[in-house]
Structures are given as structure tokens and as C-alpha cells.
From TrEMBL:
Gene Ontology terms for molecular function: transmembrane transporter activity
Name recorded for this polypeptide: Major facilitator superfamily (MFS) profile domain-containing protein
Annotated compartments: Membrane
Organism, as annotated: Ananas comosus var. bracteatus (red pineapple)
GO CC annotations, alphabetized: membrane
Organism phylogeny: Eukaryota, Viridiplantae, Streptophyta, Embryophyta, Tracheophyta
Domain Major facilitator superfamily (MFS) profile residue range list: 1-298
InterPro entries hit by this protein: MFS_dom, MFS_sugar_transport-like, MFS_trans_sf, Myo-inositol_Transporter, Sugar_transporter_CS
Entry keyword Membrane: yes
Amino acid sequence: MMVVDGGRRDGGGCSSCHRSFDRELVAGWDNATIAGAVLYIKKEFKLESEPTIEGLIVAMSLIGATIITTFSGAVSDCVGRRPMLIVSSVLYFVSGIVMLWSPNVYVLLLARLIDGFGIGLAVTLIPVYISETAPADIRGLLNTLPQFSGSGGMFLSYCMVFGMSLMPKPDWRIMLGVLSIPSLLYFALTVFYLPESPRWLVSKGRMLEAKRVLQRIRGREDVSGEMALLVEGLGVGGDTSIEEYIIGPANELIDDQGETVDKDQVTLYGPEEGLSWVARPTKDRAPWECPHHRLSPW
């Protein structure tokens, strides 16, 4: 459990932690399960002479994920991170139920496609959600957690498939359908525990809601500083332009009249005493250039 401000709970870190762990656990579980289940699927549907169908069964989730990621970011910018994550959890659950039923290979392919949609949404949005809600001091740590939980999900899945393969009649439907159980936890955490991203709320002008979410996930009343940073960060882009700087030794970079330019210049100090450079903006700047700064060696 993460704590801040004298022991008060940091809900932002915990909720991001729980959420990313569960999502990647489900994804890792799914990716590993199909590797073992396809052996029994091939036997039941007699796909020994249909390598294309066999390959599609494995690849369909990747196809679905690729399709959904092309527009998931834009849609989440419109409707919010939380609704899209709820949709992802529902897709996981529906795909698990359909795979558990699957009367033929075509229904199975459809279920795998739906599963891919859920994976694609989660893979796209979880890193965004962590970046927008987790405290800055543990944000990097939380973004490494999905790799760990995904590997854990794969390990647990391999253990399950191995155990079921020792049974007299291994059932691939159960292997794949078990996915619906962790997806229910995924759904419950998203619906009942996960708040909307405060950064997204600020971007839509819903300042009061954003403040309440920050107070909840940070565990403190005073979040005015973080609110100010969010507002400033979202409002900077339209007022800036590219500036190209020329860098030269501090004692040599002078203007056309031989006087050192003080206005708008940036002094860069080296590791040794007396070693420094000055970065001075060039006179010509393209008016259409986007927010950025470049440094050119003199």
C-alpha cells in the first residue's frame, strides 16, 4: 500500500496498481492459454488439414487488438478513460463466455476477435491511465508492473493447461472460458473502484470533478498545486512556438555590435569552473512552427 502525507492512503497509486495488475494478468493468461488449448481445438474440429484456420484461431485476438487500437485513443479522448476501460472488461467477459460455449470453429473465431478488442483497449488505455492518475514519484514503477503481472498470468495459465492436460479428457472450452472469472474482477474494480482520469476531466473543463477525484486518490484536501499543474500543462500548447538557439562559448557569443546579448539568452554551465556556454535564440523564426525548442551548436 502506497502512503503519502503522514500515512494517508494514496488511492491513485493503489487503484492504478490494482487495475494494471489485473488487466495484464488477464492478457497474459489469455495469450498463454490458447497455446495449449489449440492442440485440443485442432483435434475436435479436425483442423489437421486446415493450417490457415488453426493459425487464425491463435492470431484472431491480435487482429482484433490491432483494429481497436487504431481509434481507441481518439474515442477515449471524447468519452473518457473510465468508460472505455469498462467496455474493455465487458469484452473480456463476453469473449470468455462465448469461448466456453463455442459450438463450432466460426463462433470460436468470433470470440477470439472480441477478446482481441478487449486486449487492444486495455493495452492502449492502461499506460495512459497510469500516467494521468499515479503520483509522479511512483509513476515509473507502476508502468513496469504490467510486465510483471502479464508474466505471472502466463505462468498461472501454463500451470492450469498442464494440469488439465493430465486429465483423461482435457476440455479446451474450460481452458479458454476460465478467462471470464478474472474478467469479472477486472469489471468490478473498474466500475466500483476506478475514478475517471483527473487530467481528462480538466481537459473537458470539469474542474470541480477533477478536484474531487484528486482529493480522493491523493488522500488529502489540498490539491490546488496539482490542479494548477494540470491546467497549465493542458493550456500551454496553443501559446508556444519553436525557437532555434545558437550555442557558443560565453566569452565569444556576442551580437552584431559586439555586446553580449542578455535578453532571452540561456547560460549553460560546464563541469569545470569557468567553463560555460551561452544559448541565444536566432533572429529568424518560422511563424507556423509548432511548440518545441531546438539547440544548434555554434
